Amino acid sequence: VGFITLWDFERFIYVEHFAILSELRCRHYGARALEALHRSDRRPIVLEVELPTDDLTRRRVAFYKRAGFSLLPYDYTQPPYRHGGASLPMKIMVWTPESGVIPDFGLIRSTLHREVYGIIDAQ
User: Whole-model pTM?
Assistant: First the structure.
């Protein structure tokens, strides 16, 4: 019905890609997949989302909010996946277990930039 790719870091799990087949959306498969992830590991879960500037991106952010994620108030730039590609302004969303402890934003940003995108974070 879909797929999810994760990075397993010491302080959090990063969801790099998450998709449900378009013909199977709105059947709660996505919510159930995220619930299973929440149950399988009690570390915070981090993901990047596009800025909520149109109907599609606002719906995506609303979906993650319904799944218990919080939109962090910090500016974030997703580095390009390939040399010569463009960076994208994004937002970070985080789900936390009952403790409610959100990893430091600087730790999230530097970990993603270094481990996922292979760059040394100058910030």
Answer: 0.90
